[in-house]
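Students often ask what a holo structure prediction actually looks like on paper. The answer is less mysterious than it sounds. You provide the chain, you provide the ligand, and the output is a string of discrete structure tokens encoding the 3D arrangement of the protein together with guanosine-5'-monophosphate.
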Amino acid sequence: MNNDLNNERRGITLVLSSPSGAGKTSLSRKLLERNKKLFLSVSCTTRPPRPGEINESDYFFIEESKFNEMQKNNEFLESAKVFDHYYGTPKKPIMDALDSGMDILFDIDWQGTQQLMNSLQDDLIKVFVLPPSAKELERRLLQRNQDSDEIVKGRMSKASNEISHYAEYDYIIINENFEESLSKIESIIIAEGLKRSRQIKIQDTIDNLLKDL
Ligand code: 5GP
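The corresponding structure tokens follow.
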């Protein structure tokens, strides 16, 4: 993706939410690989790591006591209980990344999105990713092969509650084809970056243009 315009515009904060297993994490990873100005907000969680997950890269895997302490010290931008574990977005890395002009990607659920809305308001671009069908969602959860059958069943039964929050999002992507979904998200980033309100140097550009007319 061409990032030439990025120095001329305010950073973008984009949240990707979806029922577990809809493909959001794979989409996030690819987006980060292809867009060097995009910074992933790595959450803290009290959930144990799945096979292959790396501490500090996928999540900061922490004890519940540490989570409570961070919460008490107001170190989270938002936090929520999802399934049986706590999740939270650490504040400092986000503020540092925004200060250095990065775009931020949040991979969080609808509860976290609502809380982020309180601080970021119109600056937050909200994208909801849906699976093409319930059958496909189940297939992807089973294929992931990282969770027990019981956990997969639990996630399936919670999917309808998560999907019921779709109307709180600006954009909906039905993730049938990975590459297509990816380019749809990149199109959203490009279009949002072109919004007048994000083009912080546009007045100088217009002044220069008018001077020569
Ligand atoms: P998983 O355990 O499958 O990695 O994540 C379960 C759910 O928690 C997903 O919907 C994911 O987006 C959400 N989640 C991950 N990190 C955070 C966070 O920091 N805050 C909130 N509110 N949700 C999160």
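DSSP finds eight helices and nine strands in the chain.
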